[in-house]
Design brief:
With 95 residues, this protein is an all-alpha fold. The protein contains one helix and no strands. The radius of gyration is 40 Å and the shape is rod-shaped. The relative contact order is 0.04.
């Protein structure tokens, strides 16, 4: 009876050691995953900052393009007006 109890106690101790090893191993894996998540979070934040900066630059570029298009259109109108004025002067000189 005592031997059976001692054997059972040893089995329980061995099972406890196995469980402690598994817990320890799991803690290491969890810590490694946590570190990887932190690293990925940092990379994600950097990528989001780059995206925001590119969006701002894109908005600025769009404003510049719109401004240039407006200036081109104004110059075109001036040119057309000048051409029409010159045509009128030429016609009046021909008469």
């Amino acid at each position: 009876m005592i031997e059976a109890s001692e054997r059972k106690a040893r089995e329980i101790e061995m099972a406890n050691r196995d469980l402690e090893k598994k817990v320890s191993s799991s803690e290491g894996e969890i810590q490694a995953r946590l570190n990887e998540l932190k690293r990925l979070k940092g990379e994600n934040e950097k990528a989001e900052n780059v995206i925001r900066n590119l969006e701002r630059q894109s908005d600025f570029n769009k404003m510049e393009v719109d401004k240039l298009l407006s200036e081109i259109e104004n110059e075109r109108r001036k040119t057309v007006a000048n051409e029409e004025g010159m045509s009128r002067k030429i016609r009046s000189l021909e008469e």
